[in-house]
Amino acid sequence: MPIRPSAPAEPSQPEAYPEVRIVSGPVFEVIAELAAFASGPARPSLESGKAWVREVRRLAGRDLIQRVEHWAFAVYTELASIALELGPPFETRRLVDGLRHTPPARLRRRLVGAESPPNRAMVSDGAFDRALRGDAKAQAEVRKELGVNAEARAGIDRIFATGPAALRAEAAAIVESWAERVTPAFAARSGDLVRRDVEPKEGLLRVTAPRDALRVFTNGVDIDPRGWADQVVVIPAVALRPFIAPVESGSTLLLLVSVADDTIDAVAGGPPRRLVQAASALGDTQRLQILHELAAGERTATELSAALGVDRTSLHHHLGILRSAGLVAVKSEGVESWRYSLRADSLDRAASALTDYLAPRGSATGGSGPG
User: Domains of the chain by range and CATH?
Assistant: First the structure.
């Protein structure tokens, strides 16, 4: 999740943090569902689990599933920035029509991530333009720098290998078909949860500094896009829980974030969601080893990978689970530098939540009962 480092205009006057706002609408949940299904190695860790994947396969049918899986996670998250630019109402039909009327070469450029300032900072000047014109060396450079895993690299190659008009037609058709076949089965619940989630997020923004509010919305990620972004748009979604997905376009940073645990708990009841996540996160040898390493101090992913002998794809998968469980904090330090740290009070909070949940009803510790 690369973020360009800050670049204050004057050392004595640090640049103001970008405006943060909340946006929601049905089209963003369609995008979140497509991204979640195409999330590759991360898909087994989706909160919705195997039952959701099975139901999606049944609803979509084999042909649509094959077409969706042909493209990578990033292709679908890029659609969020297009939907945002098209403006309200944020309905799926508006996105489908917008895609069909977007110049094909421009859309292809968007879907490969060439409109992201941080992405452009990761490659040589003009690399995206050369790659889109068919330059094999430039394509290899883009693939290497942006392809975080095998699925992402394959997705980039497929964009380069597909003509702009064909890519545009397929993107619009996939969104339209998914919205017709799959989304209706989940729309009532997801729509209700997103609506419940927006109000407290907007309330927090009114009384909290934007950067601090984003740490809450992302459950521990410290994001600083000063120097290239003038606004941050937060889009709550259900299908991607417990993950977040950043999308950078022009001077806007979009964050598809998980609907908050408190929102889910208020509807579902049962054990506190954060407690369930913490227990699940702690029940894995490699994740316990990561926490043990972080107990000694902050580490980058590269340092953790070297210390534990874990490949980067697997490591990022485990770090995502630990962050979503509230056990790890993340801080950006430049284009490709992220530092991870143990959230000092996280285990105490998990232990306290377990004590409260197990306490008999009416006791001093757990008088409010489960949930």
Answer: 19-190+223-258 (no CATH), 263-358 (1.10.10.10)
